Every structure is written in C-alpha cells, then in structure tokens.
Amino acid sequence: MKKEDEIKFDHNEDGIDRRGFLKCMAWAGTGTLCVMKGGVLNSYSLSALSKLDSKATMGELSFVQISDSHMGFNKPANPDVIGTLRAAIDKINALPGNPEFLLHTGDITHLSKPEEFDNVQQILKDAKVKEAFYVPGEHDVAADEGKEYLERYGKETKGAGWHSFDKKGVHFIGLVNVVDLKAGGLGTLGHEQLEWLEDDLKGKKSSTPIVVFAHIPLWSVYPQWGWGTEDSAQALSYLKRFGSVTVLNGHIHQTMQKVEGNVTFHTAASTAFPQPAPGTADSPGPMKVPAEQLRSVLGVTSVNFVRGQKALAVVDSNLS
Amino acid sequence: MEKKVKRTLRILGMAILLVVGFDQATNLVRSANAAPVLNPSTANEMAAEVKIDNFNFSPATLEIKAGTTVTWTNADDIPHTVVSNDKFFKSKPLDTDQKFSFTFEKAGTYPYFCSLHPKMTAKVVVQ
Q1: Among A20-34, A120-134, A196-210, B59-73, where is mean pLDDT lowest?
Q2: What is the pTM of this model?
C-alpha cells in the first residue's frame, strides 16, 4: 500500500487535508502532537513539546494507550519485553499531568499463559494511572478461547470481553474482534457484539465524543496480512451520526493514522517489537532492528480531549 | 571324585550361560534388525510433515493415505495454530520449533488454518 492511500481528502471540511495529515502522521521513531483548534489542524514535534503552551497539551481528559506487550516473547527482535514494557510505564509516569487512565489494546501476552498475564499485571501496578481498561488480542485468547483473559479482565464486560464506559462526557467502547476468526478472513466482531453496540449507542446524543478501542484495526490497513476487520463497516455505520469518533487500535506494531469522514483511526506502536510496514516484507513477522534502535520503534500513545474540538489530540512517543 | 563333579558342574554352568547368552544376543540382533527392516516402510507411508514458515503452511496441499500421522512444525519466530475449519482438529499455539501431530483415519479433504493469522490456509487430502 502506498502511503498516500492511507489519507483521505477532507470530506468533513474540518480542516484536515491530505497534506496536513501527512505532516501529522506519527511514524515509528518520531513523535507528533496533533491539536485541532477552530477547525484547523496544528501539529507540533514532540521535541518542541516543552516549549508549548500547556493549554495546547492539556484538556478535560487525558489518557494513555499501550498495546501489544506480548509478554513471553523472547526472540531476537526483542529478548527483553519486560524491560521495554517497564520503559513504557516510565514514559507514562513522566508525562506532564497524570493521565486519567490507561487503555491496553490487546496482545497483553504472547501465549495467554497465566504467568505472562501475572507479569504484565505486576509491571502495570507501577503506572501512575487510576484505572486500566483492556481488550484482548488474538494472542490473549489463542490457548483457551479467552478463559484466562476473561477471568482477569472480564468482570465488567459482556461476551468475549466487550464493554463501554463514560469519562467526563466522552463515551468509550472496547470491542473484541479477535475471537472465533474464520479461515481466510480478517478480524471479526460478530452479530451478537454488533447488536450490543447498536443498543449501547441508542439514546446517546450525537454531540457525545466517542472513543472506540479494539485490537485489530477497524479500517482496512492491509487485508493481505489480515490487518482489518470483516464487519467493521456495520459497526462504523452506527457511529455515523456522531460528530467526533476516534478509533484506537493495536495489532500492527506501528503507528498509523487515517481520517474518514467524522472518524479518526489510529494504531499504536507495540511495547514489544516492531512489524514491517504493509507489504514491505514477505510476511508480517517480527522485524529485527539493531538493538540500539529498538526503543525508537516501540512506544506509548497519549490522548488528550479538549471540549469543543472535533478531534482528540493523539500523541505517539517512542521509548528511546 | 568330588573335584570331577565340581568341574563337570562348572562346565555345564558355563555352557548354560553361553547358550542363554547367545540366545539373548541373537534376540538383540533380531530386534536391532527388526527396526530398520519393518519400520521404514510404515514410517514413509504413515507419517508426513508440514512446515510452518514465513506465515505459510508448506505444502499448502498435503496428499496422504488414511492412517497417516501428520506433524506440523512451526519454524517462525511467532506462534501459529493448526485448526481445521470445522474444528475437527485444533492445536494449542505452537511457539518456535513446537510440533503438533494428528492422525487422519478417514478419507476426505480437511481444510485448516491458523486461528491467530486466519489468512494462513491450507488443506490435507486423505485418500
């Protein structure tokens, strides 16, 4: 896929044109802060963050996203996933202003082993956030159909672990698209979850900002590698009437953004190992980079919501 | 007289030992011969391998006779599973170099995939 294919034109007349968005794309190894002001997109390099007016980076609600910690992975692409997850937590703890909560968008573990879940839980205890919310990745449910995952994270959830909650007027929806996948197919939400989603959104005002988070991208990043979700179009159809929708995903171990109408899609870096850009390798296997470069391609995402602005500010920062 | 008896007994004993020893030895030779003589043909006919490498099952179509045991080996540095489309057989996630075996008793076509990376599909055809 060519880079320009990932960017759509400004259907929404909200000031985000293709060139503007390209500038804002936070590729691995870089960090960019995007803030919408009066319908105009502003982007700042992360290295300039300290010089910024704090109002640009502060809002009513800020939270962080981490993804794909793959606890238990020990291959050459990163023999120390514990160390890099700890580095991600240090990064979060060093952010200006305490984030309200943490989202983990799945592949918490590599092989869904209890000791792998234990290790992540232990490390996340050090994160200076009040709460953490999760959705599973396919690696978290592969060994036991998600039994271990649901025992730990499923208490307040439905079905395979989908759930929603509200924070300061923003409605958050955690979706599960990694269960009961079909041969030859992509990520799947399934009929039961889609019905729940439609019902969950009923009665919500169209002005309510929505944040959807799920493991596999809800947009078609690169279907040849399974990087997309079969029935995401139906889910997105329920979100059409909302003015501000942000979709946060993991799974592809690299940061990428796309704007489509009222929806901003964003994928987060992994805290464990990078994967190749779409179509740039024979397969999406772990990408080996020189050890000294590894932390520049791993990262955390912080998200800032300012009332009155259409899009949420999404900032990726690497671990180096 | 006593000496003669003792000597006879000793010779007898040695003879028995020799006979038993020889018998055991031939048993050993027999079993050692048995393995390479009997097993190779069954091994070739009744076992087959599928390699999982670079997000592919190889061969993508495996043709075997009924009763064959197929062994999948994951050569990737990421886990994969071997799951038949109708869940007739299903492996745990296989980490690098881990194996999964399944014996196909009945003729038929068995399409399967990796439930972690469902774009990975292949089939076993049993005659």
Answers
A1: A20-34
A2: 0.80
Cα–Cα distance for residue pair A60/A71, rounded to 1 Å? 33
**Element housing A211 (H / E):** strand A210-213
Instruction: Give the separation between CA B78 and CA A150, rounded to whole angstroms.
Output: 23
Q: What is the mean pLDDT of residues A224-247?
A: 96
* Disruptive mutation site among A113, A149, A181, A288 for chain B (greatest number of B CBs within 10 Å): A181
Which CATH number goes with the domain that contains B115?
A: 2.60.40.420
B72 in a structural domain: yes
Q: Which domain holds residue B112?
A: 45-126
What are the structure tokens assigned to A15, written together?
């000031």
Residue A283 identity (one-letter amino acid): S
Minimum-distance CB partner of B92 among A76, A143, A286: A143
A residues 169..188 contacting B (CB < 8 A): 181-186
Percent of chain A with pLDDT over 70: 81
Tens-place pLDDT, residues A92-128 = 999 887 899 999 999 999 999 999 999 999 999 999 9
pLDDT above 70: residue A301:
yes
d(CA B10, CA B4): 10
Task: Compute the Cα dihedral for A119, A125, A129, A133 and give only its sign.
Answer: positive
Per the listing, tokens 């910690």 go with: A69
Specify if B6 maps to a domain.
no
Binary contact (B79, A77; C-beta < 8 A)? no
Q: Is the model's pLDDT at A10 over the cut of 90?
A: no
Task: Give, rounded to a whole angstrom, the gap between the first and last alpha carbons of chain A.
Answer: 28
Q: Take residue A142 and report the two structure tokens written for it.
A: 């592969």
Interior angle at CA A18, CA A13 and CA A23, nearest 5: 120
Inter-chain touch B119–A226, beta carbons under 8 Å: yes
Which chain B residues are within 8 Å of A138, Cβ to Cβ? Answer: 115-116
Radius of gyration for the alpha carbons in chain B, expressed in angstroms and rounded = 26
B22 pLDDT band, cuts 50/70/90, is very low
The closest of A113, A111, A104, A103 to A148, measured between CA atoms, is A113
The pLDDT of residue B6:
57
CB A183 to CB B112 under 8 A? Answer: yes
Q: How far is B68 from chain A (nearest CA, A)?
A: 24
Alpha-carbon distance A51 to B22, whole Å? 93
CATH class of A3-318: alpha beta
Number of domains in chain B: 1
**Interval A24-66: pLDDT, tens:** 433 333 344 444 433 334 444 444 455 455 555 567 888 999 9
Q: Pick from B77, B79, B119: which is nearest to A111 by CB?
A: B79
